[in-house]
């Protein structure tokens, strides 16, 4: 499931990274013309629906997915470069990158809680622990555990659970971890370390219903980023993974 989630997350973020016209998404778009078509053939739609299902299976909130997006006509790895936030980003950098995609700071904080499940490779956080001075925003005990699992020279394929407390549950433990200095990535912990975003972390650590409502709203906003509905700009792929020939 880790690899599946990684692909979904990367694809979602890549979708979010490609800006463009936002229009005309709606629930039940294909229900009359072609029931089940989204789940069968269309990459962009299948990804958004599969993400919803993964979140639901992990105990997260249920939410409807707006449908009607077309698959892009271009798909290259180089299009992603510079459009995905690196784990070293601070609050202003994270906020700016999400704002460039019409997502608010609250959306960004809620979406970051997707890190309540999944893994991160040692190299994405060793800069915080493999130094003379461990990142002061990290709990020292947690830093010791991480260093034991990710010592200098560790196999680069080693990856750790991002939420060490409830790694398989989609819940608000992510925010409780941040309060304890147990955010794995700089971009996670900064949401609590920076006093401007801390009140939101505290609120969602205290109230999982409020977090779930914010997450659903943010996922809906994320799903509206870069949507293609103009047939000149997109089509429906016969095979999700391959451009139509
Ligand atoms: C806020 C900015 C974000 C940053 C800097 C960030 C960064 C990262 C990094 C560095 C990893 C580890 C990748 C690896 O080592 O293989 C990761 C994993 C993950 N991210 Fe994010 N991410 C962000 C936002 C998001 C969002 C918006 C979502 C989804 C809504 C998301 C979902 C995930 C998931 C599910 C994983 C685990 C993947 C796996 O288990 O293979 N992230 N993220």
UniProtKB/TrEMBL annotation:
Gene3D superfamilies: 1.10.520.10, Peroxidase, domain 2 (1.10.420.10). It catalyses: 2 a phenolic donor + H2O2 = 2 a phenolic radical donor + 2 H2O. Binds 1 heme b (iron(II)-protoporphyrin IX) group per subunit. Binds 2 calcium ions per subunit. Disulfide bonds join 122-150. The keyword Secreted does not apply. Heme b binds at residue 115. InterPro entries: Haem_peroxidase (IPR002016), Haem_peroxidase_sf (IPR010255), Peroxidase_pln (IPR000823), Peroxidases_heam-ligand_BS (IPR019793). The keyword Lyase does not apply. Substrate binds at residue 85. Ca(2+) binds at residues 116, 163, 166, 171. Its cofactor is heme b; Ca(2+). GO terms for molecular function: heme binding; lactoperoxidase activity; metal ion binding. Residues 1-23 form the signal peptide. One of its GO terms (biological process) is hydrogen peroxide catabolic process. Keywords: Calcium, Disulfide bond, Heme, Hydrogen peroxide, Iron, Metal-binding, Oxidoreductase, Peroxidase, Pyrrolidone carboxylic acid, Signal. Residues 40-244 form the Plant heme peroxidase family profile domain. It comes from the Eukaryota. Belongs to the peroxidase family. Ascorbate peroxidase subfamily. This is Plant heme peroxidase family profile domain-containing protein. It comes from Triticum turgidum subsp. durum. The lineage of its organism: Eukaryota, Viridiplantae, Streptophyta, Embryophyta, Tracheophyta.
């Amino acid at each position: 499931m880790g690899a599946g989630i990684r692909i979904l997350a990367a694809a979602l973020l890549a979708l979010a990274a490609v800006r463009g016209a936002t229009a005309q998404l709606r629930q039940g778009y294909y229900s009359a013309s072609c029931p089940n078509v989204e789940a069968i053939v269309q990459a962009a739609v299948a990804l958004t629906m599969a993400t919803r299902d993964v979140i639901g299976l992990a105990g997260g909130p249920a939410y409807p997915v707006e449908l009607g997006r077309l698959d892009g006509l271009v798909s290259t790895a180089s299009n992603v470069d510079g459009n995905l936030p690196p784990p070293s980003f601070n609050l202003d950098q994270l906020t700016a990158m999400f704002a460039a995609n019409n997502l608010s700071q609250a959306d960004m904080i809620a979406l970051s809680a997707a890190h309540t499940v999944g893994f991160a490779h040692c190299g994405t956080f060793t800069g915080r622990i493999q130094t003379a001075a461990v990142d002061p925003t990290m709990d020292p005990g947690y830093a010791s555990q991480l260093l034991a699992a990710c010592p200098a020279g560790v196999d680069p394929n080693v990856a750790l659970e991002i939420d060490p407390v409830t790694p398989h549950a989609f819940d608000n433990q992510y925010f409780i971890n941040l309060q304890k200095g147990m955010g794995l990535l700089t971009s996670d912990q900064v949401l609590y370390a920076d006093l401007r975003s801390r009140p939101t972390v505290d609120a969602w650590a205290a109230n999982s219903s409020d977090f779930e409502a914010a997450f659903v709203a943010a996922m809906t906003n994320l799903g509206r980023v870069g949507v293609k509905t103009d047939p000149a700009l997109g089509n429906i792929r016969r095979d999700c993974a391959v451009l139509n020939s």
